[in-house]
Amino acid sequence: MRELEVSERIRSFDEVALGYNEEEAIAEAERCLQCKNPKCVEGCPVGINIPEFIRHIRNREYEEAIKTIKLANNLPAICGRVCPQENQCEGRCVLGIKGDPINIGGLERFVADLELSRGFEVPEKAPDTGRSVAIIGSGPAGLTAAGDLAKMGHNVVVFEALHEPGGVLTYGIPEFRLPKRIVKAEVGYIEKLGVKIETDVVVGKTLTIEDLFQEGFDSVFVGTGAGLPAFLNVPGENLCGIYSANEFLIRVNLMKAYKFPYESDTPIKVGSENVVIGGGNVAMDSARCALRLSQKNVTVLYRRTEKEMPARRDEVRRAREEGVNFRFLTQPVGFLGDDRGQVRKVECIRMRLGEPDRSGRPRPIPIEGSNFYVDADAVVVAIGQRPNPMIPKTT
Prior knowledge:
The protein has a five-stranded parallel β-sheet. A four-stranded parallel β-sheet has the order 3-2-1-4. Strands 10, 11, 12 and 13 form a four-stranded antiparallel β-sheet that branches. The chain contains 16 helices and 15 strands. The chain is of the alpha/beta class. It folds into three domains: 6-118, Alpha-helical ferredoxin (Fumarate Reductase Iron-sulfur Protein, Chain B, domain 2), CATH 1.10.1060; 132-222, FAD/NAD(P)-binding domain, CATH 3.50.50.60; 228-386, FAD/NAD(P)-binding domain (3-Layer(bba) Sandwich). It has helices at residues 6-9, 22-29, 39-43, 50-58, 62-70, 76-82, 89-92, 104-118, 140-151, 168-171, 180-192, 209-214, 245-254, 281-294, 313-322, 390-393, and strands at residues 132-136, 155-159, 196-198, 219-222, 228-229, 242-244, 273-277, 297-301, 325-327, 330-337, 343-356, 362-366, 372-375, 378-381, 385-386.
């Protein structure tokens, strides 16, 4: 798939992966073996009939292709861009045994973008059941549930805590990987199905689940995701210039800090030595944002080797192409600051790999006496997130 040139990427937040044109999409679709027992479908969490929609692309039957996808997936333009296909459908493609698997995500994106350019066709819904469902959270889980329930004939209201719907799709994933116009368009499709979305409603604070039942909702779906950041809990983690990835990406994506001060009131501080801690997609997103904002050094610290990184291979490749540095087998154990409380260094220890842990990956083991320091005047901690306890505490 074509991509924006590196020299253009690092100076803007424009989308990097440019997608297929019609000729490229058909050529990719023609590689599909149309397996009688398609393993790709088994690898798809929502069970899209992948061979069927690819066959429609091959035959230039694009409306049929998108209809096939939308029988199982209400958000194809989003999923075609950010779904982890390499670990799911594409990871099960038999062509991947000896070569490159079919770019299933790229083909899904192709027909979804084609539909966006032509306008949505809203499917016929089931008769009104008279039942009402409240959805807490407008991220991918909430939007998917809302769309499916609306198609079944239920009355659906989505409650979103922030001022824009989309959840992690809006605040967590950068514009260069998932343009906000795509999120807004597919949220618009969910609304066309009859779903009502209310923003700035913090369930657990503004109202409770019990309040929703008292208002007449028959069921409540909790789709709040994992928005509570994990921290290292090491000395100096409260120094200025240290962000959780959650805060950093919300400032950049939702509040558009990269447009400060001309089109945004929200600043974000980066430096000349920027450090990102973690090895997942969130860490890659944070590192690539920091690079674009600072135009300076960005280094990712990860406690295992590149082989064990959970981030998508393409995202690691793109980060490296853009100039992000990587230091593997490195674990932060503390932060040092100056007399103004500003972070200046990350104290690290070198690691070695031991026996596999519960994740199936080799356990990182500290090497005694191997401590060293990495310069840093801005740090993003991207080591995972947990569900917010607000709803359980008020239910």
